[in-house]
Amino acid sequence: MADRASYAYDPVGTGAVSHQHRMEAGQLWRQYVIAGIANIAIASTGYSMGWTSPINIKLQDKNATDSPLDEGLAPEELAWVGSLLPVGAIFGPFIGGLAASKIGRKWGLMSSAIPLFVGWILVAVAKNVGYLYAGRIFWGIAVGMLFTISPMYCAEIATNEVRGALGSFLQAFITLGFLLVYGIGPFVSYNVVAYVGVAFVAVFSVTFYFMPESPMYHLIKSDRESAAECLMTIRGKSRTGVETELNQIAADVNASLEKTATLADVFRGSNFKAFYISCALVFFQQFSGINAVLFYMNTIFKAAGSDLDPSIATIIIGAVQVVASMITPMVVDRLGRRILLLVSTCGTAIGLALLGMYFLLNSQNSPVVSSIGFLPILSLVLFIVTYCWGLGPLPWAVMGELLPIEVKAVASPIATAFCWIMSFLVTRFFEPIAEAVGMYVAFWIFGVCCVCGFFFTLFVVPETKGKSLQEIQDILAGGKSKPEKA
Q1: What pLDDT score was predicted for residue 253?
Q2: Neighbouring residues of 175: CB distance < 8 A, sequence distance ≥ 6
Q3: pTM of whole model > 0.90?
């Protein structure tokens, strides 16, 4: 009788449930739309992170008419404004991880809007530098939460054929946020920049409210019917059409729930190898100097005395970032992770070496400088493009592939917090070190770190392209760095 009932409600009149399932294609565009709306919050964090580049110049100028502060900020205060966002982001992953497991991926993402809103309100009403410090910390908490929950949500709603593309949305959307703040920041008032930030968060909150929860979260909570409803919405299929996939997800969830990992498990055997590779990759990501370059973009162009208006140069860099970030998702599954990381570390090292050379010549008042005003932009374009190809997106992708499911919940927040501790050190001490030893030495230090990253990738990082999670664990356990299976 059950079969007859299924036939009676067969919407396409095929007469067989299994045949209907095979024929039901679903609507792939739904996954892109849902992931895109989820990543509006990521774009908002990019806008927040890039805020310092156009705003620092307004805050430094005590005669600026649209600065909210009575006096211009000292270099020490500016360094704290730049570096306090990563401080908040150190704590965000633990809050985000807890929220994702207790209230769900959807509501965890929604709750990240709270610290974003609070941060923008503090920045908008700032009367002294303390408001800016507090606002940046709140933004950082949101960044840490979103970097933890957003990739999780996108991975859990994606089918296998688009998981790589949806996973790379984070890098692409964050660069869109940077480009927006670079594009409007120099040309509108301080308050307008803040109001756009508030509007950004509001658009995310309203649109994402109507998006579904991750089916995996409902299954973890033993709510199969809610999981089915979500999966039907995400896939654009009937209840019968999602049944096979629902069974598969349920089996994966049950298998992972049977295994639990403690903190001690992270430091055992192949788990520890996966963990230290993940931490090393985020170390090289941060010590490429990316956040110092982005936070102090206008300052760098001003210091370089480039012929091009610093604001225009920054917009060019922002646009290059967006374009470069769109390339990785198209090639990463064909070329593999290792080759892109090798190209990336090599390219960033060359870009930083050239940038350092320019600042060295500039500090010595070399006559050559007047004829190579284009070099800072050329160097930064090379640096940004190659960073976006590998060091930007791939440490997160490789981390997700190396860490076993049961270990990921414990290890990922630690590795993410470690990433933001490194980011804090870079953004806080870049300017004082550059002042003390010269901008060129600071860039060369970052360049040396990129060279170290190249050799670490060459000798230690395994290739995970086209390999199952179990094959990756076997590689880690066997200690092979470049497995090539026939």
Answers
A1: 79
A2: 46, 318, 321, 322, 324, 325, 388
A3: no
